């Protein structure tokens, strides 16, 4: 195993370099293109990924990388970096701040490190498998809420959830929790890991969006699965993330999935 403390420092440096690029383009007249999957992309996305790649592979040339914008490089290697340089491009081009850079490292398929940088919130969450999760350098932990009636729940990608057959189940659940929110993107996972909310239900995600966040939540004491309770994989598209205490009760309520 590599020195994970060093790897985390390098990943945080890469995220900071990306943040500088995103700040340069934010709320500017940046050109927006449409990719083959009908999602937007800008020069900020591409330049940030190049900066991240140069730092990560400059420090670890023996590693592979999978990036949102430029695809895979040597992804069969033992260590592979998974990078979304600008998660939230739609928010970015509309000029609101729910934007982050997501960097995760896997070793033979296991997530071992994650960094989630939110430059317009001045937040950087980070963790590796041999340490606690942190937010801006301070150790964080999930809440101790243990009943659904006391819980604050955040929903993400509500449009997709609303179109699903299980929307009625989620609607009943929304009426049972203490508070319902819809923070979305990186933000509700930062709140969960820091003990400020208690559970997240989200759909229409991919591993580049949530791989780093999953490890951060887990190292803060929480649990992170799909909506069936299965471990997160490269093919997962849904999320149930909780403080751990609420995971089983919520899975029971979500049995329709």
Fill in the keyword field for this structure.
single chain; 257 residues; alpha+beta; 8-stranded mixed β-sheet; 5-stranded mixed β-sheet; 15 strands
Low-confidence stretches: none
In total, the number of strands is 15
Largest sheet: 8 strands, mixed
Query: Pairing-aware structural class of the strands and helices?
Result: alpha+beta
End-to-end separation in angstroms reads 37 Å
Mean pLDDT: 93
Major sheet strand order = 4-3-5-6-7-8-9-10
Q: What form results from the Cα inertia axes?
A: globular
Helical content class: 25-40%
H and E order: HEEHEEEHEEEEEEHHEHEHEEH
β-sheet strand percentage: 25-35%
Q: How much is the radius of gyration in Å?
A: 18 Å
Q: How many helices does DSSP assign?
A: 8
What does this protein look like?
The protein has helices at 4-25, 43-59, 89-94, 158-162, 167-174, 187-193, 207-219, 247-253; strands spanning 32-34, 40-42, 64-67, 71-73, 79-87, 100-107, 110-118, 123-128, 134-135, 138-139, 152-156, 179-181, 199-202, 223-225, 239-242. It has 257 residues and is α+β, with helices and mostly antiparallel strands. The strands form three sheets. The chain has an eight-stranded mixed beta sheet, with helices on both faces. It has eight helices and 15 strands. β9 (134-135) and β10 (138-139) form a beta hairpin.
Structure, briefly:
The chain is built from 8 helices and 15 strands.
Give the secondary structure arrangement, pairings included.
Elements: H1 4-25, E1 32-34, E2 40-42, H2 43-59, E3 64-67, E4 71-73, E5 79-87, H3 89-94, E6 100-107, E7 110-118, E8 123-128, E9 134-135, E10 138-139, E11 152-156, H4 158-162, H5 167-174, E12 179-181, H6 187-193, E13 199-202, H7 207-219, E14 223-225, E15 239-242, H8 247-253
Parallel strand pairs: 3-5, 11-12, 11-13
Antiparallel strand pairs: 1-2, 3-4, 5-6, 6-7, 7-8, 8-9, 9-10, 13-15, 14-15
Helix pairs in contact: 1-2, 6-7
């Amino acid at each position: 195993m590599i020195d994970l403390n060093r790897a985390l420092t390098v990943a945080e440096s890469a995220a900071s370099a990306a943040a500088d690029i995103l700040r340069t383009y934010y709320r500017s007249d940046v050109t927006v293109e449409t990719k083959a999957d009908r999602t937007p992309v800008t020069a900020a996305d591409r330049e940030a990924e190049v900066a991240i790649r140069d730092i990560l592979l400059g420090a670890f040339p023996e590693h592979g990388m999978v990036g949102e914008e430029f695809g895979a490089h040597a992804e069969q290697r033992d260590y592979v970096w998974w990078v979304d340089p600008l998660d939230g491009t739609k928010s970015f081009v509309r000029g609101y701040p729910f934007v982050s850079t997501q960097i995760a490292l896997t070793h033979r398929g296991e997530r071992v490190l994650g960094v989630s940088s939110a430059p317009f919130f001045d937040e950087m969450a980070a963790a590796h498998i041999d340490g606690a999760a942190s937010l801006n350098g301070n150790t964080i932990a999930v809440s101790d809420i243990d009943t659904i009636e006391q819980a604050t729940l955040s929903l993400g990608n509500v449009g997709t959830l609303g179109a699903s057959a299980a929307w009625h189940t989620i609607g009943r659940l929304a009426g049972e929790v203490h508070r319902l929110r819809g923070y979305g993107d990186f933000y509700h996972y930062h709140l969960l890991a820091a003990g400020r909310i208690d559970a997240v239900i989200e759909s229409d995600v991919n591993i580049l969006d949530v791989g780093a966040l999953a490890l951060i939540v887990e190292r803060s004491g929480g649990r992170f699965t799909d909506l069936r309770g299965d471990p997160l994989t490269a093919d997962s598209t849904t999320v149930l993330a909780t403080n751990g205490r609420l995971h089983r009760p919520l899975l029971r309520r979500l049995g329709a999935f």
